[in-house]
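Help! Submission page says 'invalid entity' but I think these are all valid:
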Amino acid sequence: MNKKRLLIVDDESGFTRLLKLTLEKTGNYIVREENDGTNAWLAARDFRPDLIFLDIVMPKIDGGDVAQQIRSDPMLENVPIVFLTAIVAQRETRNEIGGFPFLAKPVSLDAITKCLAEHFGE
Amino acid sequence: MKSPHNPAPIRVLVVDDNAGDVFLLREMVDGAKSRFRVSAEAGSLEEALRILAEREVDVVLLDLQLPDSRGVDTFSGAHTAAPDVPIIVLSESDDEELALQTVQLGAQEYLVKGRVDGHLLQRALRYAVERARAEVQLASERDLLQTLLENIPDRIYFKDRQSRFIRINRALTTLFGLKTAEEAYGKTDADFYGHEHAGEARQDERRVMETGEPLLGKVEFENLADGRKSWSLTTKLPLRDRQGGIIGTCGISREISELKEMEEQLETERNLLRAVIDNLPDLVFLKDVEGHYLLNNIAHVRWLGATHPREVRGRTVFDFFPDHLAAEFHQGDMKVAEARQPLINQEEHMVDARGNHSWRLTSKIPWLDDNGNTVGLVCISRDVTEQKRAEEHLKKANAELAASREELLHAVRNLQQAHGELRDVQLQLIEAEKMKSIGRLAAGVAHEVKNPLAILKMGLEFLSTQKFTDEHTPEILHEMSDALTRADKVIRGLLDFSAPKQLEVKRESLNAIIENALHLVRGEMKNGVEVELDLQSNLPHLKLDAGKISQVFVNLFTNALHAMENGGLLAVRTFTKQLTGVGSNISDSRSESFRVGQHIVIAEIDDTGHGIPEDKLAKIFEPFFTTKPTGRGTGLGLSVVRTIVDLHGATIDIRNLHEAGVRVTLMFQS
């Protein structure tokens, strides 16, 4: 079974590192962290993830714009993007922002596992 | 010879030194039927005088030729000694000169011896006695008159036709400053008085003489030539001779300067009093007990419509007013007179004789005589129309002032109310602004706090996958996880509270939203809590923001469940209703969104929990207010509920149920 490749774009390096550690520990994922939003698109090109977790509020660039860049790239246009953000409560947004699925911070491991399972059909 | 039946004979003294003559005379005097009798004889004047001194003689027959006296001296001696006793002279000689002399001196008769017979002598004696008696009488009267003239203090005069004095009395003599009356005789008034009085007196006297009519009691002002002045009361009469012809005037005049002075004083006083009452604007008058006016001042005279006090004096009020009015006035006055009680400053409305209306302040005082009997009434009445008018003006002004004050107070109250409302609005605005700030703050804080929370949570979850050999670590991790959840909850509450206030409304089923919300709070339900649903099946769909309304019910259910820690019943009902009137459910100020007759949808949530302390009910919608223990509530739940309900134009009412627990009533417009 192939390990799924996950790109986590978030300026909070503590969070990305913990999430990477936790997910890789399951043995099912290869996780790459990217703490600079402006590098997200290049990192995605380089890493070719199966799914991208994307923060919305970042210092130099908005998560929405990053999503736009990636969606505009024919090589990456089919890569699913899941927003991970602290700005809204999940209940309010009915689980999506701008057409993308969305998980609210602080997020539980369960929610992430559930989300990945939905995407990867397991 | 005496006759007992005859009256006492008249005593005759015969004085003659010739015995023959004496005998002869005695024969003639004492004759038969004679009333005379010689009672004494004297041969000398000396002897005669002695007898006369004894006054025992009625008449004297006197011979002038006596041994101790001769001629006229004899007569003078005898006459002086007894002037009252008539003397008939008997003489040897028929001396015309001597005869005339003696008669002029007072002899009654001069008879020549030898030519006298008894008859003649008797007659002479008789006449002498009679004449003497008349003279005595006359003298007596003259003396009386003289006494009167000399002693009376009134001035008496007699004047001839040319108004020359012919006789004046002592008083007038004194007035003229003369020593004797005679000094005035032949003079006129012009010699003693100023020409004014003299001329007037002269005229008066002329008139008296022309008409023969007396001038009685004329008051004259006399100015004497030397400057003295006096007042006198004079009566002048025509002076007539025995034939009745007017030969002059006589008059009597009495000094009345003192009286006049007194009169003038009285007059002055009277004028002063008159001036006082006539110059008073008040009506002043006196009435007798029959109502006749006795004294009226000018003001009262005019008030009665008359021009002079004499038109009023003696008349009554009936002469000046119509009978019905007069009767009323009269009765009022008489009542005071009868009661003998003064009426002081009675205010009355009056109409005068010309029909002028006035308000008067009237005093009526019973007028008593020295014996205490009521003899009349003293009245004084003052026109107070102006004062009355001013008073009424003042009253009106006061009333207006009071009214203005009332209006002012009303305006002030309105202002205060407006101010209060403004303050409320201001507070609401401040509150809204505060909320906005809190919202912005909350959003910022939420984001900043959530990231670290995410790391913590991730870390905790990573750690919980590890195997620990000690027994405490998993427990500690669990506690930490709980704390993290609570922190997240607070942050979520803040975000809900600060969420944008725009609604995305669609036609939604309220029942579906309620059921969904109940599902969401399953986790909070403790053992022993029962849920009873009574949702009206054909409830109309409402225009709602489903997510926000769902949050409302989640919050309300959560509160209800928190209130029933030890179990209870959560009952939820929905139903429609047509508003029939303003009831307790819509007593809220937002009830103005609803109209009578409108169909509304109501959702009611009852719990059987501990309820809300009554004193906290008013505050439950305030942000950050909570009755829950620390850690259980954020104090934002109901605040969010209220905001969302308001945005929907719905109402919410929360009250304690009588038995136990709380009822929340939500009313939506259908």
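Support: the input was valid. A stray whitespace character was the problem, and the output above is from the cleaned input. Residues 48 and 97 of chain B are 25 Å apart (CA to CA).
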